Amino acid sequence: MKPKRCPPVIVSCVCLLGMLLGMGLSGCSNPGQPNTPEPSAEPGLLAEYHGEKVYQADVERYQQNVDAISSGGAADLPTTEEALNEILRSMVLLEEAQRLGYEATQAEIDALVENAELSYAIPEGKEMIDQYCQKVGITAEEYFALLEEQAPRNIARQKLLNAVGEAYCEEHGLTYTRVNPPAEMLEAREAYVADLFAKAQDEITYYNMD
User: Fewer beta carbons below 10 Å: N end or C end of the chain?
Assistant: First the structure.
């Protein structure tokens, strides 16, 4: 007898909020910190990009969310540097998406929240989301409020990634699909984001982590 699996929509909603709360985008290469860190101007300040600041608390929240949605142990958690770069990478990707005009419609935001609510109505989904909320210290109400608050940013980023994936598939004669997409397409998207992040390094100010 095969173990019972949760519907994909449930898993995706939990993973989605986990990444949203940490402002991260997983699965991309990490170019490190080529800039020489400067003395921190504020307690806990780790980096700054175009006026947006990332603090130690943001990194810890990201790590907490990775832990909450992961079945692995503490050894699987990203380091401070890895988590910081994931947060910054997400910020860079969002800025590029906004520059190119990718925005979330209200209908898309409503659909995302509705899907999460439908997942919560399923026993398996409720259990998974409740467990996640308990791990990160929020209520189910806060879960949905945060999901809706961060939805415009996540949708804009995803629209850009979808566009990159579609363009790659069209250029290379592949069938574009969001379910089980071609591995080559995923690699191309990761390379695209990594290139954006590399080009943004001169605009990022890193501060000492001591």
Answer: N
Question: What 8-state DSSP symbol labels residue 78?
Answer: P
Q: What is the pTM of this model?
A: 0.82
141-176 pLDDT, tens digit per residue, is: 999 999 999 999 999 999 999 999 999 999 999 999
- Amino acid at site 78: P
pLDDT in tens, 70-93: 765 555 788 999 999 999 999 999
**What is the H or E stretch that residue 205 is in?**
strand 204-206
Residue 61: count of CB within 10 angstroms of its CB: 19
C-alpha neighbours within 13 Å on the C-beta side of residue 165: 20
